Amino acid sequence: MNTLVKLRYRFWPDKIFGELLQKPWMETAVPLLVLLGVIAFFSARIDNFISVASMSDTLRQACELGFVVLGMSIVLIVGGIDLSVGSIYALCNLLALYCVNVLGFGMVPAVAITLVAGGLLGAVNGVLIGYLRMRAFLTTMVTLIVYKAANDMLNAKIGVEISANFPDAPAWDFLGMGTFLNIPVIVWVFGVVAVAGHIFLTRLRAGWHVLAIGGNRRSAYNTGLPVKRVVALSYVASGVFAAAAAIFYASRLASPGADTGKGMEIVVLTAAILGGIRLGGGKGSVMKAMLGTLIVLLLTNGMLRMAMSAGASRVILASILLLAALLDIRWFKNRHKAVQELYVSPGYMELPPPQTAARGSGSPYALNDKLRGVETIGLGEVEAPEDVVLDAEDNLYCGNRHGDIIRFFAPDYRRQEVYAHIGGQPLGMAMTQDGTLFVCVGGMGLYRVNADRSVAKVTDETNRSLLSIIDDSRLRLADDLDIAPDGRIFFSEATVRYEMHEWPTDSLEARGNGRIICYDPRTGKTSTVLRNLVFPNGIVMASDGQSLLFAESWACRISRYWFDGPKKGTVEAIVDDLPGYPDNLNRASDGHYWLAIMGVRSPVFDLAMKRPAFRRRMSKKLPGDEWLAPNLNTGCIVKISETGEILDVMWDQGGENHPMITSMREHRGYLYIGGIHNNRIGRLKLEDVAPDFVDLKVAHA
Predict the structure, then answer these.
(1) pLDDT exceeds cutoff 90 at 388
(2) At residue 39, does pLDDT exceed 70?
(3) What is the pLDDT of residues 307-353, one digit of tens each?
(4) Are residues 455 and 419 in contact, defined by beta-carbon separation less than 8 angstroms?
(5) What are the strands of the beta sheet with 455-459, ordered from one edge?
(6) How many CB atoms lie within 10 A of CB 456?
(7) 3-state SS record for 153-205
(8) What is the per-residue DSSP string for 303-332?
(9) Do residues 1 and 573 lie in contact, with contact meaning Cβ atoms separated by under 8 Å?
(10) Average of pLDDT values for 499-509?
(11) Average of pLDDT values for 224-253?
(12) What CA–CA distance (Å, rounded) separates 95 from 540?
């Protein structure tokens, strides 16, 4: 690129680490690293700790424990806790063996009866906690004691009878010890259940309800979610999962032992929390539960093979549980702060000296009062009209911060209405000859409002960068657009790292976080055509129909990009020493271009751009509202030629009419002015311009 702007990126390891920390899968990466550490520790001390011969038994044990951990995870996610899982497990083990060994039931009725029993035992907890609103910890502690006592009494009565019978039940034996394709049956069953659980939590509305209730029970209730029912059903699910684990345990060992399920609540809680299931609720996944299960199972097996006593093993697991709970609470409390401190990664940017704007200096940017006579439209009746556009009947359209498109009716623009509701902040707009309005919506993508006022999404994603850590396929900040003669829509995305409400932070980084994107209506495909731009903003088609002009706000320059023709792919800076931060670009009636300047450069901020370490310390030590930021409160409009010649400059000194100008549109001899921080639209009568000029795009199918 032919430009004097010098960019040099530093602190890239911190940038990468900050982006990694904000990824949801990083919460799964932590228990994965712990799992690898456990394997490495015991493998170094125990011969054949991980071997093919022991893999079958290890998988069986892991899946048995995994069922109980899944049930506990659902309860934890919804914001509760279930200490009775070990006692339910023991009772269901006894019931399954009694059905098969004593009553002679087949596998199917025995499994059905046991699962129903587990659900009923869990339902007791569910009713008491969900509907009667009793404390989960105390309630499940009581049911743990009651269920354990019931198991001991029943075991004393029927345990000998169960052990004395050895029924001929091939299906039951296959359930416990059988394999399919050399993989234990329980692994197949657990795999199906795990996939279903993942779909439930991530794709189904009921799973979203569980997460929402765990995240904030009061808010969930206020939005109309059935909080009591969902909480109660989570305990039913915990009981059913504990029963499923007991069924496989019973079919594998056929043991009604008195110690069955003893201390299981500690093991299961440790597994869930080590896997990353939050104690406070609202966070968790099936993958985390599975990783936690493997960690605890390998820990217990390792301690057993190292000849540690059962008591010592429980003490170690309890200590790990306490440590994991402490880390969970502290990390959840401070993770956002850590991400904020590490995510912002300033780079080095040196701008060329700006041309002076001093009055009487002879500079093309010399201060004047040409915008002092601007009349106002909708004063105090509109908020944040970032861009303005007019239709063939001279009606005026703008967006507002509430997600609406407002229409002011010609000729006096005193009467207005909500033309359409989009939902996000409307930014750049373009009107076609047939009345279709295309809108860049912050945080949502590119949308259109048809002539019948119906709103439709055009695109909200593009191709993802191969080496990008963050998901840059989603459009975070679609900004401005224009339509090529063949119907392709080119629009800017100001930053791929920050959301709509965070866009000022991008100025602190001075990095090439932005890009230009093309949507082709003929194929319906969206693709990124130009990357690594410094907050690309305004876009306007050039006269040749093969190139476009675009503004880069923090780089203070206007460049030209050829998307077709002999110079396809070429980028050339045409203005690189602007005295302020450029925003939208639009056509003028004389073949030139109007450019909005939304703020004036200051020596302090220009110097800070060359001090990335200073900006990094500032982002760590100070709250965001105290960071150094660009000056965005002076209105200016510039007319430029296609080669970058400055033809006219209009200032609003003091910002009395338009303190921040982000757009302007020429229409039938007037210049209509918008500003994202303004509460009005401006109109300025132009001299010596084509009185019938309208900026409408050619409509395409």
Answers:
(1) yes
(2) yes
(3) 888 778 878 877 877 777 777 666 666 666 666 667 888 889 999 99
(4) no
(5) 425-431, 437-442, 445-449, 455-459
(6) 9
(7) HHHHHHHHHHHHCCCCCHHHHHHHHCEECCEEHHHHHHHHHHHHHHHHHHHCH
(8) HHHTT--HHHHHHHHHHHHHHHHHHHHHHH
(9) yes
(10) 87
(11) 96
(12) 75
DSSP state of 432: B
Comparing CA positions, the residue from 209, 297, 282, 307 lying closest to residue 245 is 297
Token duo for residue 71? 């049930």
Collect all residues with Cβ–Cβ distance below 8 Å to 127 and sequence separation of at least 6. 232
CB contact at 8 A, 114 and 247: yes
Q: Poorest-confidence range of 137-146, 236-245, 468-477, 666-675?
A: 468-477
What distances in angstroms separate CA 639 from CA 388, 390, 541, 683, one per listed residue? Answer: 17, 20, 15, 16
Structure tokens at 353: 């000296």
Among residues 259, 663, 260, which one has the least CA distance to residue 479? 663
Cα–Cα distances in angstroms (integers) from residue 660 to residues 128, 190, 364, 592, 647, in the given order: 59, 60, 20, 23, 21
Round to the nearest angstrom and report the end-to-end CA distance of the chain.
35
Tokens of 499: 């959301």
Q: What is the mean pLDDT of residues 71-95?
A: 96
Where does residue 443 fall: left (phi above 0), alpha (psi -120 to 50 degrees), or beta otherwise?
Answer: left
What per-residue string of b and e applies to 397-406 under the rule 16 or more CB within 10 Å gives b?
Answer: bbbbbebbbb
265-289 burial code (b ≥16 CB/10 A, e <16): bbbbbbbbbbbbbbbebbbbbbbbb
**Distance (Å, whole) CA 397 – CA 385:** 9
Cα dihedral: 264, 266, 268, 269 (round 10): 160
Joined together, the tokens standing for residue 28 give: 């799964």
Three-class secondary structure of residue 655 per DSSP: helix
Residues, the chain, total?
Answer: 701
The identity of residue 244, as a single letter, is A
